[in-house]
Design goal:
This protein is 14% helix and 33% strand. By secondary structure, the protein is of the alpha+beta class. Strands 1-2-3-4-5 form a five-stranded mixed beta sheet, covered by helices on one side. The protein starts with 18 loop residues before the first strand and ends in a 15-residue tail after the last strand.
Length: 129
């Protein structure tokens, strides 16, 4: 019989881009549970202003999370967008790296959330004709 895996503190997680600071960007309901959305403003490899996190990355991340259909890891109470959408060797589809945490902020798992479909804040304002 397998033992359930214990959640680990993110500071102990072997990632090359640990989150240092994040801002709150609201919340949404996933699988009948409230999930707090946060956007990283500082990681071990990047920094972004709160303005960029709130006005550009935040809206697109929230849309991506609303469109995300896969279940979040058990116990997820916080979802933190670590990076802007990108592609990687392990996942050639455009995605966000999203760090899932429990209510105490303990690291659970990093997941990929697909880039949202539709007009994105990162693409700038829509020009009127």
């Amino acid at each position: 019989m397998l033992k359930p895996q214990k959640a680990i503190d993110q500071s102990q997680c072997r990632t090359t881009n640990r989150i240092v600071k994040a801002i709150n960007y609201g919340s949404l309901i996933k699988a009948q549970k409230m999930v707090e959305l946060l956007v990283a403003t500082e990681t071990e490899t990047d920094t972004r202003t709160e303005e960029v996190a709130r006005n550009i990355m935040g809206p697109d991340f929230k849309t991506a999370m609303e469109q995300h259909e896969d279940p979040l890891p058990e116990g997820t109470a916080k979802a933190v967008a670590r990076d802007v959408w990108h592609v990687s060797k392990s996942d050639p589809k455009e995605h966000y790296d999203v760090v899932c945490q429990n209510a105490a902020g303990t690291y659970l798992e990093t997941i990929h959330v697909k880039k949202p479909v539709g007009k994105l804040a990162a693409e700038g304002p829509v020009e009127e004709k």
